[in-house]
User: Which sequence fits this backbone?
């Protein structure tokens, strides 16, 4: 029994952290989502402990997932550049960007990181939906996390599109079809 916990310690810590994130944000979403404006307050009053916990958990998970994704992309890029610079390649091709293998990037991510990204994304999109549906009847906490998830998605999309673009030729003459149609 002790060996099981020893082998699964990191998974247990990750599951507890993600479960806390889901539970706290589910509580916030339920309170804000089912709150009906009563005319005396602009938004539901949330417990300070819930506000603090939700803020700390969302900021932590955002930072952890973004850094894990960024480090993994940088690691794959560094390895690809290191391997493309050897083996007799010409100096002309050394400065050309190579397309990142997104399959290799995702294969290097641990199951814990993939789970954290998916949990953060799903909860974030739910919070964003509540924010958009409730408008001014939403709390400052929901407003802040909605803006945060939008920023996180934009950052992640930037990495996704950069990996697509990084393998594209920099100018028209470098494209294979352009080179094939040019007269000799």
Assistant:
């Amino acid at each position: 029994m002790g060996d099981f916990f020893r082998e699964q310690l990191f998974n247990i810590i990750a599951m507890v952290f993600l479960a806390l994130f889901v539970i706290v944000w589910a509580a916030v979403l339920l309170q804000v989502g089912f709150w009906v404006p009563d005319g005396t307050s602009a938004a539901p009053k949330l417990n300070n402990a819930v506000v603090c916990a939700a803020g700390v958990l969302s900021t932590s998970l955002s930072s952890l997932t973004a850094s894990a994704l960024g480090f993994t992309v940088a690691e794959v890029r560094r390895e690809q550049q290191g391997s493309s610079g050897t083996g007799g390649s010409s100096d002309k091709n050394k400065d050309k960007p190579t397309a990142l293998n997104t399959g290799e990037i995702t294969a290097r991510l641990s199951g814990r990181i993939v789970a954290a990204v998916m949990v953060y994304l799903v909860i974030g999109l739910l919070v964003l939906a509540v924010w958009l549906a409730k408008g001014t009847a939403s709390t400052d906490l929901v407003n802040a996390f909605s803006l945060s998830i939008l920023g996180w998605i934009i950052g992640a999309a930037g990495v996704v599109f950069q990996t697509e673009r990084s393998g594209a030729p920099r100018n028209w003459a470098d494209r294979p079809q352009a080179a094939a149609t040019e007269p000799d």
